[in-house]
Design a protein that fits this description.
The protein folds into two domains: 73 residues, no CATH class; 169 residues, 3-Layer(aba) Sandwich (Rossmann fold), CATH 3.40.50. Helix 4 links the parallel strand 1 and strand 2. With 269 residues, it is α/β, with parallel strands linked by helices. The protein contains eleven helices and five strands. A five-stranded parallel β-sheet has the order 2-1-3-4-5, with helices on both faces. It is elongated and about 65 Å long.
């Protein structure tokens, strides 16, 4: 028995909407072929050696805290949850994402881990994200109160320019990886920002990057394949024009729960 539900009548798509879709499609394909997308440039030359070197260092610790907010955190968190079995707690090192500025929550975490054996990765493209800087200051204060050295325990990922985070990094002597200026946090999943936590959790980042590149090459070379993946965006656009703006994603696969949070953030922006 087959059950089919149709929530959208394609006959209601106007010729103007279809023309706009085709125009946008040609623009996207053109930008792919001309390497206009920053994340695509990252895909073609992934900084895997930098990831491997840092992973070798982070594996010396029992815990790794990733400080960040929004896209700088959710992309990597999604990949970690895909590779991690949430019924098991044997992942070493243990990975924690601190995305909020709730001092009670952060304090509770710190009281239940060994800070002596904890590394901290701080990510902010601009270096001025107030939530991320607040998280870092709170963590640094905990290290100070417990009289624990920060030597070789902190890694900062930000752009190579003057910023508050960059100044803190220079004053404290933290390790540093440059955040690409070509991409924003929401598009950083294929960069070191997303690949570092993913690789640390055992996720196959090599296959992930090569598959991502193959996908973009495929949709750029075959317009039918492009339509297969993106025709729904036209439907979503037309629905929103008709004041039907609710978008529903149901992650029945437990490991895709964080994907739904990431999707929600991307859609909201």
């Amino acid at each position: 028995m087959k059950l089919k539900q149709t929530f959208f009548n394609s006959l209601k798509v106007s010729s103007e909407d279809k023309a706009n879709y085709k125009k946008e499609k040609h623009s996207i394909i053109k930008n792919i072929n001309e390497d206009k997308f920053g994340f695509l440039q990252e895909l073609k030359k992934p900084r895997l050696n930098e990831v491997y070197n840092l992973i070798d260092h982070l594996k010396k610790f029992e815990n790794v805290l990733f400080l960040g907010t929004g896209g700088s955190s959710l992309g990597g968190k999604t990949l970690v949850s895909i590779s991690d079995n949430h019924f098991l707690t044997s992942l070493k090192p243990k990975i924690f994402f601190i995305e909020n500025v709730d001092s009670l929550s952060i304090s509770s975490l710190i009281e239940n881990i060994n800070l002596e054996k904890t590394a901290v990765v701080v990510t902010s493209k601009s270096g001025e994200t107030i939530e991320t800087i607040s998280q870092l200051c709170f963590i640094l204060d905990e290290f100070k109160k417990k009289k624990i050295s920060t030597n070789k325990k902190f890694i900062v990922i930000t752009e190579s320019k003057d910023s508050t985070l960059k100044k803190i990094k220079e004053i404290k002597g933290f390790s540093y990886l440059e955040h690409s200026s070509l991409i924003g946090g929401r598009f950083s999943i294929f960069s070191i920002v997303g690949l570092i936590p993913a690789k640390l959790s055992g996720f196959n980042i090599e296959l992930f990057c090569s598959s991502g590149l193959n996908f973009f090459e495929e949709i750029a070379s075959d317009k039918k394949i492009f339509d297969y993946y993106f025709n729904s965006s036209l439907n979503q656009y037309v629905l929103s024009k008709n004041e039907k703006c609710t978008s529903v994603i149901m992650p029945y696969v437990d490991s895709l729960f964080n994907l739904s949070l990431w999707y929600k953030q991307l859609l909201a922006e």
